[in-house]
Write a structure and sequence with these properties.
This protein has 162 residues and is mainly beta. It folds into 2 domains: 10-98, no CATH class; 101-155, no CATH class. The chain contains 2 helices and 12 strands, in the order βββββββββαβαββ. The strands form 4 sheets. Strands 1-3-5 form a 3-stranded parallel beta sheet, with no helix packed on it. Strands 2-4-6 form a 3-stranded parallel beta sheet, with no helix packed on it. The longest helix is centred in the last third of the chain and has 16 residues, at 101-116. It is elongated, with a radius of gyration of 19 Å. The N and C termini lie far apart (62 Å). The model has no long low-confidence stretch (mean pLDDT 80).
Length: 162
């Protein structure tokens, strides 16, 4: 089955099925919430670069999830018998988190506020997701340590007091 979706609409997707084998690439879509409930499954999932809440509840399954570099993730696994290959994840209790590129960028942006003399900056990516975009924001390109390309940011705050 092939499902065609409009790339401009924000979706809540809920899938409830028996045993399935699926290749699901959601990378180009805006998914607010994705819920998959199934029996024994083989799922290959590419998640979007969007703040999505994803819940997967399956029987004995093989689940491969591709996570874009600039998406922060917290994964909670509630499973009896499971093999968990979670490269780059940090385990604390039964929670797994990944801190890589997004955390590096956030730290670099925070340290750039003084250099840019602005108390609140956001990436162009975050700015594009805002429901209300200020029309009077200055856009700048900056170089961030650990990031190969110039990074576009928006100055959303006020200058620091001298």
């Amino acid at each position: 089955m092939q499902l065609k979706l409009n790339k401009e609409i924000v979706y809540d997707l809920h899938v409830n099925t028996g045993a399935i084998h699926t290749e699901c690439n959601l990378s180009e879509f805006k998914i607010d919430e994705l819920s998959i409930e199934s029996g024994a499954s083989n799922i290959n999932l590419v998640i979007p670069e969007y703040n999505s809440k994803i819940t997967i509840d399956t029987g004995v399954s093989n689940i491969d999830i591709a996570i874009p570099n600039n998406v922060g993730v917290m994964l909670i696994i509630d499973s009896g018998i499971a093999v968990k290959n979670l490269d780059d994840f940090i385990k604390e209790n039964n929670n797994y988190t990944v801190m890589g590129f997004p955390v590096n960028v956030a730290a670099r942006l925070e340290s750039s506020t003084k250099e840019l003399n602005n108390n609140f900056i956001v990436s162009e990516y975050v700015y594009a997701m805002l429901a209300e975009q200020k029309s009077v924001t200055e856009q700048k390109q900056i170089n961030l340590k650990g990031v190969s390309e110039p990074f576009v940011v928006r100055l959303m705050g006020k200058p620091f007091a001298n």
